[in-house]
Specification:
This protein is α+β, with helices and mostly antiparallel strands. It contains eleven helices and eight strands. The chain is rod-shaped, with a radius of gyration of 54 Å.
């Protein structure tokens, strides 16, 4: 009798151990347990730790609550300014409601991936090329809003969306390179013109100072001669400015006594008269006296005859 009781107790203990082993489940810290009893969702979501279910009646599904990093395949599209580009991105999302993620959508990861690709193509068609290259922060926010609106009903929250790379055709890259080079050349020319303007203003101010003190121009000329002669050149070309000649003219005593005589250029001066001999002068005087005796008036011989004589 006692042996039968011991055997029954051992059998009951073994059955209890098997039952407990079949009913015991462990939920990890980053997971949540969703229980279906006869296919019906239980309201209580099992927290991390040791939990029990009814064997052959309940089904426990574990849902990962960590942030999922999902790359979005490169999508090819035409921008609003008719440029063909390929854009790829990455989506960061996590499950905030484990029961909704299992009940509302069959595969929430696949659904988020397809929705991300569709939204990325839509963003490409609504944006310009300059926005894709330089204003990505605004496009990232737009993508996040487009993904978060339907995903929140699936128990999924979009953490952030980032555009990784924008691939351009080779012809467009060359055109952009030429555009950047032309823009840099334009800025260089503007800077050079601005420098010339500033230099001309400074030279104008220096000319005004030198006009008040003519000796400053001579000192500047001497400094230039010293700078050129320091290089040990065999030939020295020294330009003489007109202002220096005027300064020397005013400084000469003979020029000051003669007054402000206007200098004539060499090509406007009359040719020099050649020297005449004493016999030539005596003959010319006798000819003039003879002409006066014949005519009674003084007649000036023509230049042509004078030159022939």
């Amino acid at each position: 009798m006692i042996e039968e009781l011991l055997m029954a107790a051992a059998g009951a203990g073994a059955a209890i151990a098997v039952y407990v082993g079949a009913a015991m489940r462990v939920v990890k810290q980053y997971e949540r347990g969703v229980v279906f009893r006869f296919g019906r969702l239980r309201d209580d979501v099992r927290a991390p730790g040791l939990t029990m279910i009814v064997p052959a009646v309940d089904r426990l599904h574990k849902v990962n609550m960590q942030i999922v990093t999902m790359p979005v395949p490169a999508q090819e599209g035409i921008t609003r300014d008719n440029v063909t580009v390929r854009v790829d991105a990455v989506v960061y999302f996590k499950v905030v409601d484990a029961a909704e993620a299992l009940v509302r959508v069959e595969d929430y990861k696949f659904a988020v991936s397809q929705m991300a690709q569709t939204s990325l193509r839509s963003i490409i068609g609504k944006s310009d090329l300059d926005d894709l290259l330089s204003n990505r922060e605004k496009l990232n926010q737009g993508l996040e809003l487009m993904l978060d609106s339907p995903a929140i009903g699936w128990g999924v929250q979009i953490d952030r969306v980032e555009i990784k790379d924008v691939s351009l055709p080779e012809t467009m890259k060359r055109s952009m390179a030429r555009q950047a080079e032309a823009d840099r050349e334009r800025r260089a020319r503007v800077i050079n013109a601005d420098a010339e303007l500033q230099a001309s203003k400074k030279l104008s101010e220096a000319a005004e100072v030198m006009s008040e003190q003519p000796a400053a121009l001579q000192l500047r000329l001497l400094q230039t001669v010293m700078a050129v002669s320091a290089e040990k050149n065999s030939t020295l070309v020294l330009p003489i400015p007109v202002e220096l000649l005027r300064f020397l003219e005013r400084a000469t005593p003979g020029a000051a006594a003669g007054g402000h005589a206007e200098m004539m250029p060499p090509h406007a001066m009359p040719p020099p008269v050649p020297p005449r001999s004493a016999a030539y002068l005596a003959g010319r005087a006798d000819a003039e006296d003879a002409i006066e005796d014949l005519t009674g008036t003084s007649v000036e011989p023509s230049t042509h005859r004078e030159d022939e004589g």
